[in-house]
Amino acid sequence: MKNTIIALSVFIISSINIISQDNDDTWLNPFWDFYSFNYLNTESAGRGFTGIASNNNISGILMNPASVNLSSKYQVNLQYTYKTSNPWLKSIVPDVFIRHQLFSGSVGFGYRINKEMQTGFVYNNPTSLYFDLGTALGLNGQEFDYYNDVIYHSFNVPFVYGNKNFRLGINLNYVYSRVTFPYNQDTNYHVTNNFFRAGAGFIFNINRNVSVGAKVQSGGRSEVSYDFPGIFYNQTPDNAVYPWKFGIGLQYKVPESLFKILLDYNLTYHNVENLKERHDFHIGAEKGFSKNWFLRGGFFTILDYRNDNVNWVDPVGDYTQYFFTLGLGFKQNNFTADIAVLTSEISPGIIKTTYINGGLTFNF
Q1: What domains can you pick out in the chain, each with its CATH number?
Q2: 10: part of which helix (H) or strand (E)?
Q3: Whole-prediction pTM value?
């Protein structure tokens, strides 16, 4: 796979439309959410990535901080997601792909302080991508891989209060984001950012069978830092953009059955000039066939959130995705194993991605 410097320049020019406002960074930007999000909660991922109103393991902070509900005093949880590649701007630059980034996992530790209070720690990579631009020629005539490698390292500390009818949770979240790209075959440049945000949510059990929940996560802008060794760089710092996120959910358990239905609605406020608010709808179901085996399925949308005030290379609508999900869970004593497949291959546009997510939970 080889691309010339001219082709790469065309790509850069064509992608200027991604820049949302003056001094907003191109890569640390919610524009890429249609591919970069990693769905690092296998139980929820299998049932349409629902769970705002449902109990979950420590990785459930992605759904709703209040959903964390440990079944024993201590819990260890591991998650990992793999996703397939997508071509990018094929009409302009051939053989350019958005690919899976190696770091797309989660490790968490939960601790039940007492009957009502729980806390823990989760490190995860909720957002990551590897932008493969093929090869380029260095000043010495040697070819080298040309790419943009984007990853968000996220550190989370939740605090959850719960009783029989009501659960309230907050999550303190520190994010270290980084973009790596090569200058030549020997030197890499880095753009980094540090950001602190908080999330909160609640779950209310209306009765034994019906519960409702809501969540919010703060967003904002934060200046990036440049590490460009060997050159003088005097550009005004760009901003990394973190969207505000809101969600509401409903869970219904069929009486005298191990079957439940979940409905979630998520709103993402991008605060980006060329992106509009994202409205995503999720539906999922779970059926327990015994105390050990659980089958899950669901559907959710990622509607194209690009504003039509821009003459995009790929027309608005091409990034709309319809995801079908399937999951399987196994539970034995204090051990749980989950697997989920999420695919948007039936989507009408040009972005079609399949995710495979696995999770392990140990309670002790």
Answers
A1: 5-363 (2.40.160.60)
A2: helix 5-14
A3: 0.93
CA pair distance 320, 323, nearest whole angstrom:
10
- Answer whether 185's CB lies under 8 Å from 192's CB: no
H/E segment holding residue 185: none
- Angle at CA of residue 290, ends 284 and 295, nearest 5°: 25
Residue-wise pLDDT tens digits, 254-297: 998 999 999 999 999 999 989 999 999 999 999 999 989 999 99
Strand runs labelled E in the chain: 74-83, 86-87, 97-99, 105-112, 117-124, 128-137, 143-162, 166-182, 188-205, 210-217, 220-223, 225-227, 239-242, 244-253, 259-269, 278-288, 293-302, 321-332, 335-343, 354-363
For 355, left (φ over 0), alpha (ψ -120 to 50), or beta?
Answer: beta
Q: Using CA atoms, how far apart are residues 303 and 279, in angstroms rounded to an integer?
A: 7
Q: Which structure tokens are listed for 362? A: 């140990």
Give 257's contacts (C-beta < 8 A, 6+ positions apart).
Answer: none
Q: Per-residue pLDDT tens for 1-18?
A: 444 444 454 444 445 455
Residue with tokens 């709103």: 267
Token look-up 């608010």 returns: 277
